[in-house]
Write a structure and sequence with these properties.
It is a single chain. The protein has about 475 residues and is α/β, with parallel strands linked by helices. It folds into 3 domains: about 130 residues, Lipocalin (Beta Barrel); about 240 residues, 3-Layer(aba) Sandwich (Rossmann fold), CATH 3.40.50; about 80 residues, no CATH class. It has 13 helices and 17 strands. β12, α3 and β13 form a beta-alpha-beta unit. α6 runs antiparallel to α7 and α8 crosses α9. The longest helix has 18 residues.
C-alpha cells in the first residue's frame, strides 16, 4: 500500500534501492569470505569471470540495464563494481565476490543487493537472479566488450570561458556555513545575478540526480550569456554545515534568503538585478523568499507546484497505480487511505495523538504489518518536511509577488502535473495584478526538462541530455528581456 510516494526528486537513491527495501536473503553463506573461497583447494580459476557482464532487470514496466565489472586484485581475488547506466549510477562498489566451479555470487552492500548466477559455457551467459529486499528477480548476464556507459554531453569541460570560485556564506536559520560555487562572466562591469534553488531532498550544488547535474549545465549556460550564478550545497550536504533533519521548506527558504543576500555583497554583481531560479520544490521556495525581501528582481519557476502538497501527492499516487494497472476499486481504496493520513497529518495535535491515529489507519488498511515496520512508517510520515508540504498552499506567497515571473513546465512531467499546477500558478499571479507574468508548458519535456518518451522518472538516467537546449533558450531570452527593461 502506498502512503506517501516520492515527491519530486526527493528520493535521490537508486531505484534499485527504493524499489526493494528490507533485508537480503543471500543465495550464499555470508560467513564465507572471498579470500577463503579464492584460496581454497577446490576454488576455480577466478579469471574465468573477469570482464564486463551486462544484463537487464525487469521491474514491473521498467527495464534497467546493469553492468558488473570484474577483475582480480593483487592476491588473485575477484573484485569489482556495478553500474546502473539507465539511472546514471556508476562505480557502485561490490562486496564479497565468490566463484565456484560454474557459479558466481556477489554482494552490493550499499544497496543491500546480491546476485547469484550459473555460467552456461555454450552461450557464454550467466543465468541467475538479482536478490534484494527478500525478492528475487531473474537476471541473465552476458559477457561484453562494449558495456553501456553514462554519457552527459552537456556537462562543461575545461578550460571554461568564465571565472568559477568556491564561496561560503552564513545562514543563521541553519546555524551553519553553507558553501557553493559562484560563476562569473569575464568582465569588469557589474552583471545580473541569479541564485539556483534545487528540488526536494538533500541536494548538492549541482542538483545531482540519476547521473545528471542539471544546475551545472544551467549555470554554465547562464554564465556564458553574461550572468553571475550562485549554486550551493544545501544544509547538511556536501561541504555545507548544518542538517536537514526537521527542516521544512520554510526553513530552507531562509537559507535561500541568505544566499541572495550574499550575492548582493559581490561587487561584480548588479544588486538591483538579482533573481532566483527554482526547480520543483525550489520553485515553491522562491516565491516565499521574494514575498519577504525586496532584494529579488525576478523569478523563474521550473516544474513548480501551484497546488497544495496533498493534491500533488494524490495525483502522483493515482498516476502510479494507474500505470500499474490497478482496478478502480483498488485505486479508490488507495486514495481513501492516503486522504485519511493527510487529514491526520494536518491536525494541530500533539505528536503522540497523531502517531496513534496513524497506527490505527495502517492496521485497519492491512497494508502494513509488523510492529517495527509500522513504527518506521509512522516516523517517516511525521517528518516535519512532509507535514509542512501537504499543508502549504503555494498560491498564498504567489499572490504577493510583484516582480516578473516566468513559470515553465514540461508537458510530460509526471511528478508535478503541468495542466493543473500551471493554471493555479497563473491564477495566483494574476490575482496579485502582476504586470509581467509568463506561463508556458513546453512540449515533449519531463520534470527535469529533458526530451522524454513517457516522462516517467525511471527514464531520467538513461536520457543523455541533461537540460533541453530550447528550454535553456526560453529561460535566457526571458531573463535578458527583464534585465534590459530595468
Amino acid at each position: 500500500m502506498a502512503f506517501a510516494p516520492c515527491v519530486f526528486p526527493r528520493c535521490r537513491r537508486l531505484l534499485l534501492l527504493a524499489l526493494l527495501i528490507g533485508g537480503v536473503s543471500l543465495a550464499f553463506d555470508p560467513s564465507r569470505s572471498a579470500a577463503v573461497q579464492a584460496h581454497s583447494p577446490s576454488a576455480p580459476d577466478s579469471t574465468e569471470f573477469v570482464g564486463d557482464w551486462v544484463g537487464t532487470l525487469t521491474v514491473g514496466n521498467t527495464n534497467m540495464r546493469v553492468v558488473f565489472r570484474l577483475q582480480t586484485d593483487a592476491e588473485g581475488r575477484l573484485v569489482g563494481s556495478m553500474d546502473s547506466p539507465d539511472q546514471g549510477a556508476t562505480d557502485i562498489p561490490l562486496g564479497a565476490v565468490l566463484a565456484t566451479k560454474d557459479t558466481l555470487r556477489l554482494r552490493v552492500p550499499s544497496i543491500a543487493g546480491a546476485y547469484a548466477g550459473v555460467y552456461r559455457d555454450s552461450t557464454d551467459v550467466l543465468e541467475g537472479v538479482w536478490i534484494q529486499g527478500g525478492q528475487r528477480l531473474p537476471l541473465s548476464l552476458k559477457r561484453t566488450e562494449d558495456a553501456p556507459t553514462v554519457r552527459r554531453p552537456q556537462e562543461p569541460s575545461m578550460p571554461l570561458p568564465y571565472k568559477s570560485e568556491t564561496v561560503s556564506f552564513r545562514s543563521e536559520a541553519a546555524g551553519a556555513t553553507l558553501r557553493g560555487t559562484l560563476t562569473l562572466p569575464d568582465t569588469t562591469a557589474p552583471v545580473p545575478g541569479v541564485v539556483l534553488v534545487a528540488g526536494s531532498g538533500p541536494s548538492d550544488r549541482n542538483a545531482t540526480i540519476m547521473g545528471h547535474k542539471p544546475f551545472l549545465v544551467l549555470a554554465d549556460a547562464l554564465t556564458r550569456q553574461g550572468y553571475a550564478v550562485l549554486r550551493f550545497d544545501e544544509r547538511g550536504v556536501g561541504q555545507s554545515g548544518g542538517t536537514q533533519a526537521g527542516a521544512t521548506s520554510a526553513d530552507l527558504a531562509e537559507d535561500v534568503t541568505a544566499a541572495v543576500e550574499a550575492l548582493t555583497q559581490r561587487t561584480e554583481v548588479a544588486s538591483n538585478q538579482i533573481g532566483i531560479i527554482g526547480h520543483s520544490e525550489g520553485g515553491l521556495i522562491a516565491p516565499m523568499v521574494a514575498a519577504k525581501t525586496d532584494l529579488v528582481s525576478f523569478l523563474v519557476l521550473l516544474a513548480t507546484p501551484g497546488l497544495p502538497g496533498d493534491v500533488i501527492l494524490a495525483d502522483q499516487l493515482d498516476r502510479r497505480i494507474r500505470r500499474q494497472g490497478a482496478t478502480r476499486r483498488i485505486r479508490a481504496l488507495q486514495r481513501g487511505t492516503q486522504q485519511r493520513i493527510f487529514e491526520i497529518l494536518k491536525q494541530d495535535a500533539d505528536s503522540a495523538s497523531i502517531a496513534s491515529q496513524l497506527r490505527k489507519v495502517m492496521i485497519q488498511s492491512r497494508g502494513i504489518s509488523g510492529e517495527q515496520t509500522i513504527q518506521r512508517e509512522v516516523q517517516r510520515l511525521m517528518d516535519p518536511w512532509l507535514r509542512f508540504f501537504i499543508s502549504h498552499d503555494p498560491r498564498a506567497p504567489l499572490r504577493k509577488i510583484d516582480v516578473p515571473v516566468l513559470a515553465l513546465a514540461g508537458a510530460k512531467d509526471q511528478q508535478v502535473a503541468p495542466d493543473t499546477n500551471q493554471t493555479a500558478i497563473a491564477e495566483a499571479l494574476n490575482a496579485s495584478r502582476n504586470a509581467s507574468v509568463t506561463v508556458r508548458t513546453l512540449d515533449g519535456l519531463n520534470h527535469l526538462f529533458q526530451p522524454a518518451e513517457t516522462g516517467a522518472p525511471s527514464e531520467y538516467g538513461r536520457i543523455e541530455e541533461t537540460f533541453d537546449p530550447k528550454a535553456l533558450d526560453v529561460i535566457i531570452d526571458w531573463m535578458d528581456a527583464q534585465v534590459a527593461s530595468r
